[in-house]
Amino acid sequence: MSSGLPRSSYDPRRIFLFNLPKLNLGGKGREIGTYLAGGLFAASFFLLIDASTISSHAKPPPDAPYDTVPVHISFTDWIPAIFSTLGYLTISILDKTHLTSNSSDSFGSEGSIASRARAVLFVGVALLAGGFAGSLTVLILKYLVPGYNAYAYYGAANVGMNGGLMLSSLILWIAQSSSDEYEYQLTV
Amino acid sequence: MKAGLKTVVVLAFVLAIGFTLVILSCALWNNWLPLIVAFTFVLAPLPNSVCGRLAGSNDFTAESNTAYLSFGHFLTGTLVSSGFAIPLILLHSKLIQGPACWMSMAGGSLVYGTILVYAGLFNEGQDEMGF
């Protein structure tokens, strides 16, 4: 090894030129991050439920009490949420330690574990991003283009819900991938 | 931490005040929707204890599964967050009055805080409950 780097900070398997900082929160940070992720998950769901409740109890404007309310939240508004939730579950169920492992299967025929884990991760992230893009589409096509600007909160809540799920999955990822030093201390 | 008799009495009082606030927030306006808050906050400590038992967290020689523990933390966060979110939603869609919302939220957090403090004080034998 003829590089000038000190031996301790050199990882021969790294792929970036610069050392990326490794977030290590420890046991307590792991716990708090998981709590935060759960809270954000529920809060983003309740944002969409809030919009649905308002929509189902919406009354026509007081100066025209016999008009009908022009737009309601329907099943269309929930489709992005379904995609995002599926993606969230896929990402959170995945065991992150397999993403960087080099070891192959015990049978060695199906390809390495890492590539399969990465494929599952790709599907999960695609579902999450698809949900977010779908919520933006609903906001624009259902509320902004037809000119229901007074009801734009329904679409905005949808975007906020899907963004909240993304953020929550990010927090959960960071919290769960921090090292289990706490656990090791207990096992020793 | 030593927990004396006074602590128990104070905790019981706080618990009673919390439940009174929640029930008042329903009864004063004759609208029993805020009672959902009490259920979420009473249920909130449950996932941690169930998942802690499932993971076998007291047996360190065996391989303790942290996935169960993390799932319990996640569920706790979900329940506590929904305890605060439900009154806000009901207020936002004008199903309950403003004071009812704040009263049920305050009462629910008092109940949850009491359960946490009680569990923290009287579980000395176990290392850490970590609600």
From TrEMBL, chain A:
<keyword id="KW-1133">Transmembrane helix</keyword>
<comment type="similarity">
    <text>Belongs to the UPF0220 family.</text>
</comment>
<dbReference type="Pfam" id="PF05255">
    <property type="entry name" value="UPF0220"/>
</dbReference>
<feature type="transmembrane region" description="Helical">
    <location>
        <begin position="32"/>
        <end position="49"/>
    </location>
</feature>
<dbReference type="GO" id="GO:0016020">
    <property type="term" value="C:membrane"/>
</dbReference>
<keyword id="KW-0472">Membrane</keyword>
<keyword id="KW-0812">Transmembrane</keyword>
<feature type="transmembrane region" description="Helical">
    <location>
        <begin position="119"/>
        <end position="145"/>
    </location>
</feature>
<feature type="transmembrane region" description="Helical">
    <location>
        <begin position="151"/>
        <end position="175"/>
    </location>
</feature>
<dbReference type="InterPro" id="IPR007919">
    <property type="entry name" value="UPF0220"/>
</dbReference>
<protein>
    <submittedName>
        <fullName>Uncharacterized protein</fullName>
    </submittedName>
</protein>
TrEMBL record, chain B:
<dbReference type="GO" id="GO:0034424">
    <property type="term" value="C:Vps55/Vps68 complex"/>
</dbReference>
<keyword id="KW-0812">Transmembrane</keyword>
<comment type="similarity">
    <text>Belongs to the OB-RGRP/VPS55 family.</text>
</comment>
<feature type="transmembrane region" description="Helical">
    <location>
        <begin position="7"/>
        <end position="30"/>
    </location>
</feature>
<dbReference type="GO" id="GO:0032511">
    <property type="term" value="P:late endosome to vacuole transport via multivesicular body sorting pathway"/>
</dbReference>
<protein>
    <recommendedName>
        <fullName>Vacuolar protein sorting 55</fullName>
    </recommendedName>
</protein>
<feature type="transmembrane region" description="Helical">
    <location>
        <begin position="36"/>
        <end position="55"/>
    </location>
</feature>
<dbReference type="InterPro" id="IPR007262">
    <property type="entry name" value="Vps55/LEPROT"/>
</dbReference>
<keyword id="KW-1133">Transmembrane helix</keyword>
<feature type="transmembrane region" description="Helical">
    <location>
        <begin position="102"/>
        <end position="122"/>
    </location>
</feature>
<keyword id="KW-0472">Membrane</keyword>
<feature type="transmembrane region" description="Helical">
    <location>
        <begin position="67"/>
        <end position="90"/>
    </location>
</feature>
<dbReference type="Pfam" id="PF04133">
    <property type="entry name" value="Vps55"/>
</dbReference>
